[in-house]
Amino acid sequence: MRIISGTMRGKKLATLEGDAVRPTSDRVKEALFDILQFRIEGRRFLDLFAGSGQIGLEALSRGAALAVLVEPSREAQRVIEKNLAATGFGDRARLIPGDFAAFLRYAPDTFDVAFLDPPYRAGLLQQALPQVAGRMAPGGILICEHPRDEALPESAGDFQKYREYRYGKTMLTSYCRPQGA
Q1: Which one, out of 8, 21, 33, 47, has a CA that is 20 to 30 A from the CA of 65?
Q2: How many other C-beta atoms are found inside a 10 Å radius of the C-beta of residue 105?
Q3: Per residue in 12-48, pLDDT tens?
Q4: Is residue 5 a contact partner of residue 13, using CB atoms and an 8 Å limit?
Q5: Backbone angles phi, psi at 145, to 5 degrees
Q6: Of 45, 24, 59, whose CA–CA distance to 142 is shortest?
Q7: Where are the domains of the chain?
Q8: What residues contact 107, with CB distance under 8 A and at least 6 apart?
Q9: pLDDT at res. 19
């Protein structure tokens, strides 16, 4: 696993081992950042189910002002800390240990971009979407990674499903506020 573009292009990242881990593939990661192309630089990025932190770190490499990485697993938190140290992005990143719902309930921040990639088929995406929508800045975008056969709601808070992108068995679904909302 590596950072694919930006100031840390090619930097190898530590990852979690085992079958329970499902890192975002380079193909899907590249597609994600193609979608977000002009929405990263100088923005606040939320990586809600951070895992190894690779998506938030990619956003920082591409010029995000801040990345907040939320992760409940202590093992994954240690991997994120290693990756933050290896990239030198610790001054622009915040690792939040703990549950996504508690973070969203009490977080003072708003975000310009939110990426949600929870464990597949656990119902977490449907729980998190409306909560994340309430933490988004005007003009913000939500993007969810999920299995192709998992249908997502048409709306989340005042965000509407905008586009769906298919990459083999993986989908990226984006949500935006309608104009004037």
Answers
A1: 21
A2: 11
A3: 999 987 655 678 888 999 999 999 988 999 999 999 9
A4: no
A5: -100, 130
A6: 45
A7: 26-176
A8: 68, 135
A9: 57
Q: How large is the C-alpha radius of gyration of the chain?
A: 15
Superfamily of domain 26-176: Vaccinia Virus protein VP39 (3.40.50.150)
Total-model pTM: 0.94
How many residues in total does the chain contain? 181
User: Which of 78, 173, 75 has its CA nearest to residue 132?
Assistant: 173
Question: CA angle, corner 129, sides to 25 and 111, nearest 5?
Answer: 80
Sign of the CA dihedral 74, 78, 80, 81?
A: positive
pLDDT digit string (tens) for 145-170? 999 999 899 999 999 999 999 999 99
For 132, counting Cβ atoms within 10 Å of its Cβ (0-12 exposed, 13-18 middle, 19+ buried), the class is buried
- Can you tell me whether residue 101 is helix, strand or coil? helix
Rounding to the nearest 10 degrees, give the CA dihedral for residues 23, 25, 30, 35.
-70
pLDDT tens digits, 120-151 = 888 899 999 999 999 999 999 999 999 999 98
